[in-house]
Design a protein that fits this description.
This protein is of the alpha+beta class.
Length: 156
């Protein structure tokens, strides 16, 4: 189920943000993500955020949350700009990112985002989702090359 972010989601969403960034961007020092963590945690409640929540079955798990709904990913927007899609490590490659993307595609006629060139998995995901590379840029904060990618809902 996808729903709007609630203040009670903050700790789980921030945890997913930090873990996902550290894992997907191993070419950027871990300290960069940890340094930005407090600011991101402060900004999340003010952003347009949708969370993907699913019931955990607890099979093979001694997780205290077993049998309860748990946030497995989220997408953050600033109007038409996707600040990011983040999926917990245990839920990757299970369609969570695609469902979040489809959800916001129904809400927007155009979407854009920046993605690091070295994040090959994400670049391929966005291309499969109909995004095209508009131009190459350099992230001023990290010095890493990135793509500006755009998706448009073209009535057909």
């Amino acid at each position: 189920m996808i729903r709007e972010f609630q203040d009670t989601d903050l700790d789980r969403v921030a945890e997913i943000w930090l873990d996902a960034n550290q894992q997907a961007h191993d070419f950027i020092p871990v300290g960069y993500w940890k340094e930005n963590f407090p600011a991101v945690k402060e900004m999340l409640p003010q952003a347009e955020v949708y969370v993907y929540e699913a019931e955990t079955d607890g099979e093979g798990s001694n997780d205290l949350l077993s049998g309860r709904n748990e946030i497995q990913g989220f997408i953050g927007l600033n109007e038409e700009y996707i600040e990011g899609i983040f999926v917990s490590s245990g839920a990757r490659s299970m369609g969570v990112g695609k469902e979040l993307m489809n959800y916001v595609k129904k809400k927007k006629r155009k979407l854009c985002l920046n993605v690091y060139q070295k994040n090959f998995r994400a670049v391929r995901f966005y291309q499969r989702e109909g995004f095209r590379i508009e131009r190459e840029e350099t992230d001023g904060n990290t010095g890493e090359k990135e793509y500006l990618m755009i998706w448009e809902d073209i009535p057909g």
